[in-house]
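seq as requested:
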Amino acid sequence: MPTSGVKTCAQTRRDSSKTEPTKAQAEECAICLDDIDGIRRSKLAFLKCGHTFHSTCMARWNKQCKERSYVRTCPYCREKL
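struct tokens:
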């Protein structure tokens, strides 16, 4: 059975992570879902993948990753940090 044109879940996730975030995604923290628009830059965490989170949310995320021996990744696109 030909599978051309059919993507696996992993391929779909990789492809979607390369798209620009929507306006709503760019204005809210994907961890706590609170608004980040208008928050001082010093209170935000900017990841190399381009996603932005509250710095306290990222600290909690990183701590949980460490406690569970997970690889640290972006909570939104799963790119390694």
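The two ends are 38 Å apart (CA to CA).
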